[in-house]
Structures are given as C-alpha cells and as structure tokens.
Design brief:
369 residues, mainly alpha, three-stranded antiparallel beta sheet, 13 helices, 9 strands, 9% strand
Length: 369
C-alpha cells in the first residue's frame, strides 16, 4: 500500500462543521500491516459473543455452545462474504490464461471486497449444520444470535469508513461526507473508481474545495446503515421480554434489516448488480427478505392471537415439543440446550403467565383441535 500524505487522509462533514484529520486505514506492527477493517471485524465477533452469551443465560441456554459456534463461524462467514462479492464481480478477478493470478486476486481480501449478505448466508448454513450435529433448536439459536449479528454489523460498517468505500451518491445535504480525490489518486485507483461508476460524473461535477483539496461529497451510507442497525438492536433489547414465539427475533431482524438495507442500497454508487439488468443484488435480496419476514410475522401473530394454536409457523427446527399454556412463547421460557441431549424428544415448558397457566394437558390438546 502506498504512503499517503496525512493531508489527504482528512475526512470532512462540511455541513456539520466536522473535520477528521489523519484517518488511516491500517496500523503497522513492526513490518506487518494490520488493517482497521480486520481489527473491527474481530472486535465485532468479541462483542457478538458477549451479547449472545448474555441472551443465552437469560433464556437458560448453555452459553458455552455459542462460543463453540462463533469460533466455528469466523472462517465460513468471511469466505461467504468474499464469495458473494466475487460472484457478482467476476470480471475484476479473472485473469485470462492465468489460474494462479486469478486465485491470488480472489483470495486477497486486504484490498476489500466483502459482502454482508454473503456472510449471513454462510452463517445460516453453518448454523443449520451446527444445530443438526448438536441436536439443538435452530430457531431458538437464530433468535439468540440476532443480537450478535446486529452488533457485528453496527461495528463492521465503520471498516467501510476507514477504507473510504461503500459510500452513497452525490449529496450536499446536512449529512454530506467529503473525501479528497487526492486520497484515491495517491492510492492509484481513482481512474478505476471513475471507470466503474463508483465515483460518478455528478460527484465530479460538484467537487468542492476544502482546505485547498478537491473533494467529492457523498452520502455516508455506512453511517446510515450502522445507525439503523443500532435502532433495531435497541428495539430488540426493549422488546425481548415480550417475545411471542420462537423465531420472532430472527424474523424482526430479517425484516427490519431488509427494509433498512433496501433504502440505503438505493443510495449507494458501488452496488453489486445482477448482470446487466441494472438491478442491485442486495436491494433485490433485501426486498425479498423484508416481504417474507413480514408475511411470516403476520401469520405467527395471528396464530398466537388464537389461543391454543401452535406457537409458530417456524416451529422448532430440532423437533422440540412445545406445550402451550396461555401465551405462545414467554421470554423467560426455560429450554435445555446442553448441546448433547436429543432435542427431538425434548419438552419445552412455556408457563406463560396467563390466567390459564394451570390448565391440564388435556385442555391444552382440546384447545388446539
């Protein structure tokens, strides 16, 4: 990586009167360069572990199981995020007639190129396999993991800030972020960014001069998405004592993040595209996630409103029997998830707290007919 003048490392929020000086993208430890993006990802995994184990203890699960899962998840999540990105940018990585150079380019993640949806998809696949092997409920685990996923995304987007990437289209709004063009010129990728449309003609036509430097002013979409995810996380913390059914937190996340990502992705200038269709991959996927989650949430809430119905369409992926007594799935449900028990025969007691909590099993069965 080239040495960049501290002058060019400035990032401005001119309409807010904020100037940030000497914002690098790495630190040097001896002769080794450590990227801030990588550091942020690792911090994200650590905080994810803290939140997930906290939720596991609250719901009487085995927190050590989640440590095992997070350690297993790191490599698949990074590989999934990379493969997803490469899939929609193959032309950037394939070197005709040189397999070695192609593989080298694909494996070089130091230059960026990770897509969060790819990491999530890989995470879901890993979780399904993990739950099958450990014989635990995938749905309950998904609810618990939601807290960790969100904190990881909240922090992860700041890696984009340090890399000056994943920004939005031109804007002169209050939130406009100004980046010196000389930063990209010094990195040697300004022509590439202009050629691929990441830096658009409209940005170049509206360059502003700040402290003697020509800057593009763009939407800080990394910040928009990070703040949106923070609101989702705060909501889940407030709402978690009112949980209605297993899978509810996961569906709220899928739908909530899908809605936010759909809006934010519409502002970005560097989106992955579906071929030459002009359709943004992540925006299309976000819309599908949002609609699917809303439909499943509505179905589940209607069923929960009908006393005695099964707790959720999602059910219990491990085959756990759920005894309904008043409420669909109270937040303080006790669940045995030692990781070793055969979940297919596990019974989960959901005492609920309703005035019918003492009903006999026969009455429960009658109510579900």
């Amino acid at each position: 990586m080239s040495q960049i003048s501290e002058y060019f490392r400035s990032i401005f929020f001119p309409n807010l009167g904020i100037t940030l000086r000497n914002i690098g993208d790495h630190i040097n430890i001896g002769s080794f360069e450590v990227r801030f993006y990588g550091i942020i990802i690792m911090i994200g995994f650590l905080l994810a572990y803290v939140l997930v184990t906290n939720e596991a203890k609250r719901t009487k699960q085995n927190p050590e199981m989640y440590l095992d899962f997070i350690l297993i998840l790191i490599i698949p999540a990074i590989l999934g995020a990379r493969l997803y990105y490469i899939l929609f940018r193959l032309d950037q990585y394939i070197v005709q007639g040189d397999v070695g150079a192609t593989l080298k380019a694909m494996l070089n993640i130091r230059g960026g190129g990770l897509a969060i949806y790819g990491g999530i998809i890989a995470g879901v696949i890993t979780a399904v396999i993990f739950c099958k092997v450990r014989k635990v409920s995938f749905v309950l685990m998904a609810d618990t993991a939601t807290f960790g996923i969100l904190i990881g995304q909240i922090l992860g987007r700041f890696g984009n800030f340090f890399n000056r990437e994943a920004f939005g289209a031109y804007t002169n709004s209050k939130m406009a972020m100004a980046i010196p063009l000389d930063y990209y010129r010094s990195e040697g990728n300004l022509d590439y960014l202009e050629r691929t449309g990441v830096i658009t003609q409209k940005m170049l036509d509206n360059v502003v001069n700040i402290d003697g430097m020509d800057c593009i002013t763009v939407h800080p979409t990394f910040l928009y998405e990070s703040l949106w995810n923070l609101m989702l996380l705060v909501f889940l913390f407030i709402y978690r004592k009112h949980k209605k059914f297993k899978g509810e937190f996961a569906l709220i996340y899928v739908g909530g993040y899908g809605l936010g990502r759909f809006i934010v992705e519409g502002l970005r200038s560097d989106s992955l595209m579906i071929g030459n269709t002009g359709i943004k991959v992540s925006q299309a996927l976000a819309l599908v996630c949002f609609v699917t989650a809303v439909v499943l949430l509505v179905i589940n809430y209607v069923r929960c409103a009908k006393r005695g119905w099964p707790a959720a369409v999602m059910g219990d992926a491990a085959g756990t029997e759920v005894k309904i007594s008043g409420e669909c799935d109270p937040a303080d449900t006790e669940v045995e998830t030692s990781g070793e028990a055969d979940a297919a025969g596990t019974e989960v007691e959901t005492s609920g707290g309703s005035d019918d909590a003492g009903e006999k099993k026969k009455d429960d069965k009658d109510a579900t007919k």
